[in-house]
């Protein structure tokens, strides 16, 4: 026996009730539209403001009071510390590029090398920065898919570096790579997985698109492209796979 819904249909409601439901639906749509427009702008402004205040709090204590704008103005200028940090890092890079700068850097490293605890920490952090930010490197610039943590379960990963040295010598004869499997929606945490190169499926997705996919928990899908990524080197292996958008997969 089919159950009868006791609730009246919209057509059976009085004219005033139908107008009220229609107005409430329009207000709801207007609110959601405003939220979609204002939400990203508000979050972006909040994160930018938080970053500017963070850098200012780090840099301003090292700037003499005579050089701070608020010494002569009745208000503070946000972002002054960020400008000072940018100029200072640029000058540091310029000085490091010449002979005197390299000599000073080497002298500082000799001093740090004599400190038992600081020595290991400095060398580890320096190696990470040199590997990630080197101009000719491809660390975290290649995005792939691996069948992990189980069969039929595919996870997004970033290909970091091929296994080398003692790590490669301890593994089987096949080519192995180190991949970072990030968590969602916080891609700064994840897992380091070392696996065979043949089991890593490189895909035609930029790192920016991969981060958007992770942080949106799969809502923002990458668009399909016709060719390989320009200027991004690939490890030896099979060609990158083509990622089909969600609406094409659903319509197949």
Describe this structure in words.
This protein is an alpha+beta fold. It has helices at 15-59, 80-96, 99-113, 116-133, 165-169, 207-215, 246-251, and strands at 142-147, 154-162, 176-182, 190-196, 200-202. The protein has a domain at 142-251. It has a 5-stranded antiparallel beta sheet with strand order 4-3-2-1-5, with helices on one face. Strand 3 (176-182) and strand 4 form a beta hairpin. It starts with 14 loop residues before the first helix and ends with a helix. Residues 228-252 have low confidence and may be disordered.
Radius of gyration, in angstroms, nearest whole number: 27 Å
Question: Ends: how far apart?
Answer: 38 Å
- Can you give the mean pLDDT? 80
% residues in beta strands: 5-15%
Largest sheet: 5 strands, antiparallel
- Specify the structural class: alpha+beta
Low-confidence stretches: 228-252
| Helix-residue proportion | 40-55%
List the helices and strands and how they pair.
Layout: H1 15-59, H2 80-96, H3 99-113, H4 116-133, E1 142-147, E2 154-162, H5 165-169, E3 176-182, E4 190-196, E5 200-202, H6 207-215, H7 246-251
Antiparallel strand pairs: 1-2, 1-5, 2-3, 3-4
List keywords for this structure.
252 residues; alpha+beta; five-stranded antiparallel sheet; 46% helix
Compact overview of the structure:
With 252 residues, the protein is of the alpha+beta class.
């Amino acid at each position: 026996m089919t159950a009868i819904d006791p609730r009246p249909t919209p057509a059976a409601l009085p004219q005033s009730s139908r107008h009220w439901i229609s107005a409430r639906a329009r207000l709801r749509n207007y609110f959601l539209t405003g939220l979609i427009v204002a939400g990203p702008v508000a979050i972006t402004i909040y994160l930018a403001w938080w970053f500017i205040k963070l850098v200012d709090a780090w840099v301003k204590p090292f700037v003499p009071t005579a050089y701070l704008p608020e010494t002569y103005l009745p208000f503070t200028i946000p972002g002054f510390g960020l400008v000072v940090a940018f100029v200072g890092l640029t000058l540091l890079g310029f000085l490091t590029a010449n002979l005197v700068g390299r000599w000073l850097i080497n002298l500082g490293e000799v001093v740090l090398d004599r400190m038992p605890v600081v020595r290991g920490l400095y060398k580890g952090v320096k190696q990470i920065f040199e590997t990630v930010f080197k101009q000719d490197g491809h660390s975290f610039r290649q995005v792939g898919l691996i069948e992990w943590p189980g069969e039929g379960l595919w996870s997004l990963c970033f290909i970091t570096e091929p296994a080398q040295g003692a790590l490669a010598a301890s593994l089987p004869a096949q080519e192995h790579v180190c991949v970072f499997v990030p968590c969602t929606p916080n891609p700064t945490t994840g897992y380091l997985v070392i696996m065979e190169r043949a089991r890593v499926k490189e895909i035609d997705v930029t790192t920016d698109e991969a981060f958007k996919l992770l942080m949106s928990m799969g809502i923002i899908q990458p668009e399909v492209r016709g060719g390989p990524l320009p200027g991004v080197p690939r490890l030896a292996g099979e060609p990158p796979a083509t990622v089909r958008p969600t609406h094409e997969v659903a319509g197949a």
